[in-house]
Amino acid sequence: MSMPKGSNVPVPARPLRVEFGWRTGPGAPRTEACALLLADGRADVVGYGRAHPSGGVRHEGARPVDGERVDSLLVDLTRVEQGLDRVVLVASVDGGTFGQLPGARVRVTDAVAGEEVAHFECADTTVESALVLGELYRRAGQWRFRAVGQGYDTGLAGLAADFGIPADAFVPSEPQVAPEPVPAPPATSPQPLTPPAPSAPPVRLTKVTLTKDAPSVSLTKQGGTSGAMRVNLNWRMREQPRGWLRKAGLMGSQAAEIDLDLCALYELTDGTRGVVQALGNAFGAVDRPPYIQLDGDDRTGAVDSGENLTINLDHRHAFRRILVFVTIYEGARSFAGLHATTTLRPESGAPVEFFLDECTVPSTVCALALISNDGGELVVRREARYLVPRPGVSPQRTVDQAYGWGMNWTPGRKH
Fold this sequence. Notes:
By secondary structure, this protein is mainly beta. The protein has helices at 155-163, 219-222, 242-247, 395-403, and strands spanning 8-10, 15-23, 30-39, 42-47, 57-65, 68-76, 86-94, 105-110, 116-121, 130-139, 142-152, 208-209, 216-218, 228-237, 259-268, 273-276, 284-285, 292-294, 307-312, 319-330, 338-345, 352-355, 365-374, 377-387.
């Protein structure tokens, strides 16, 4: 069964074979797979028949298998250096796009026993010419595989810039070793990874759309961890008959005047917790804690305006978690009939967007997105969770209780 994009599974600390495969056919472009070995700002590229000096990663090359073309890498997790915590699995196409590769998928197997330990199908590729397939990473002493499927329409140049790798690291050279089923013990002791050249300015990637099946994305992997990230909420009412408007508590032009408030609960690494919202003029600030600011209070929901938060990612290490949510201040008794889009736009990397599902409960507060600092990695998770306050309980207290913020609340109003 294929893993959803963004999900992860534990893998054994043994030699693993990572296979990138696709169905062969006329017009399919040339494809190459390789691995990026990342540790503490250092990086190495292993591909084109090469092997890492440690013996931990070896490119085995491509071969035909039952109507498919399979390009494989052997990753021996028993030989990966202790200081190395990520092996990013990458593929690129020459003179085409991944949309021309039917049935593209990644399969991870135990290289000794032959048993499958992970499987990920790259089903939604279109114009991308370079793709981060997945990654093997070490967390609390345990190796795991994450299905990534993040594409670059700028090819390896864009990918190299985001990872701080010189573009010529991907240029093929003569193979250093002949492929073997399992690498022999290294002839020499492991050598340190080569430091990357100064990184080029990040490039804009393909837009990332979060869904129920693929609810999360790493800003860190996209290079979107600096500068100002704008979080935008825009909305409109779906076309509904007048009878429905009466049930929803909306009449006439009032349906266009619903007032939604974008808010954010935050928890900093020093234990500070608080809220950014229009109520009580708690608009926050970007140049001092909490490094989150509400731009203003919009009542139109227009695509080019709407409600906006700015998060200063230059202070990302100060964040433990940020929960972005929206409340109905006035104009409706629930989110029913509302079509809303949330978009996160970091200065670097891809914009991240998702849509709210149809609301079927009497909800006046919706948790939109949870941004968490996961061991130094900044991850955005789609929540899109409608909450129903109990009688006498404010929307803010309701979302606090649902996510365990533990704050004390007092009534507030807009000024």
